[in-house]
Amino acid sequence: MGTGKIKSRKLAKKTPLTRSQMMQAVHSKNTKPEVIVRRGLFKQGFRYRLHRRDLPGTPDIFVLKYGVVVFINGCFWHQHGCKLTSRPKSNSEFWDNKFTNNVVRDIKTNWQLSLEGYRVATIWECSLLNEESAKRTLERLTAFIQSDEESIEI
């Protein structure tokens, strides 16, 4: 019985090839959190455009009628600081640079969009983990879109 556990732990260890394959499987468009937000907004009657490449940062959702851009950020990739945020132990210098660059780019993008007159909503992946929190998040996002607030982070 004890030997089986040791074997399964050895199999669970990530090799560089496995880790590389896992990272390649991560997509930036049409993620599960993004689809949850899109469906919720559509049910509320909002119409939007996806992934507008002509806007800074290529927002996940753009609600033209209200001048609102929505980014749905993964907590790991954008270093939110919640329980979903971690840092890989191997190749730490690479990851530190990667995460720092992501955070700085997010700040610049939000600033550029504000200068162009857009209102910015940032939705974190952790706010969509279960049905109840996703419902609250969508309610807050809907209220933001219909308000005059400049930005929101949920």
Textual characterization of the structure:
The chain has 154 residues and is an alpha/beta fold. The protein has one domain (27-153): Endonuclease, Chain A (3-Layer(aba) Sandwich), CATH 3.40.960.10. The protein contains five helices and five strands. The chain has helices at 2-12, 16-24, 32-43, 92-115, 131-146; strands at residues 49-50, 61-63, 68-73, 119-124, 151-153. The protein has a five-stranded mixed β-sheet, sandwiched between helices. Strand 2 (61-63) and strand 3 (68-73) form a beta hairpin. Helix 3 packs across helix 5. It is globular and about 45 Å long. The termini are far apart. 20% of the residues are buried. Residues 1-11 have low confidence and may be disordered.
